[in-house]
Specification:
167 residues; alpha+beta; Helicase, Ruva Protein, domain 3; Tetrahydropterin Synthase, Chain A; three-stranded antiparallel sheet; two-stranded antiparallel sheet; 7 helices; 5 strands; 46% helix
Length: 167
């Protein structure tokens, strides 16, 4: 089956995957857009797993101040190279994570950081397990994994801080 360039372009814009990956996914699914998105998502997970052991020494710190200046958050995220740290996709991820921290007030990054025997719900207090504020069907970890697949570099949240006036 021949896939139109418009369909490839639309899939690429939605997923950020490469042109040939989009074409291959659409051909494999017979032009079914949603199935092609799922195939690319699974490929992204595989890419993220391969990159997970790589050292992350570059990155940036992003700050977000909510309207009115009563709540603010800072997030440090790291990647492998300074080239990726300067890309718009990486900066956008950092901004989204800072907004997530400001909105949801997580207490830790991952479940491994929770105190032993803590009586808390990890999906509420762990940043990576929280539902993403813009799309509750995805977690913050899903958002990071998608960015790893797009940029082809390991990405980690190193630390964050949240400030609220009067608390």
């Amino acid at each position: 089956m021949e896939v139109s360039t418009a369909a490839i372009k639309a899939l690429r814009e939605k997923t950020g995957a490469g042109v040939m990956d989009c074409k291959r996914a659409l051909t494999e699914t017979g032009g079914d857009f949603d199935s092609a998105c799922e195939i690319l998502r699974k490929q992204g997970l595989a890419i993220a797993e391969k990159k997970a052991s790589r050292t992350v020494a570059q990155g940036l710190v992003e700050a977000y101040i909510h309207l009115g200046g009563r709540i603010g958050a800072m997030v440090e995220i790291n990647c492998e190279t300074d080239f990726v740290a300067r890309t718009e996709d990486f900066r956008q991820l950092a901004h989204e994570l800072a907004m997530q921290v400001a909105a949801t007030a997580p207490t830790c990054i991952s479940p491994e950081e929770l105190p032993q025997g803590a009586a808390v719900n990890p999906s509420e207090c762990c940043l990576l397990l929280q539902p993403y504020i813009r799309d509750p069907n995805r977690t913050v970890q899903d958002l990071i994994t998608e960015t790893v697949a797009k940029l082809r570099e390991n990405i980690r949240v190193r630390r964050f801080a949240r400030f609220e006036l009067g608390c």
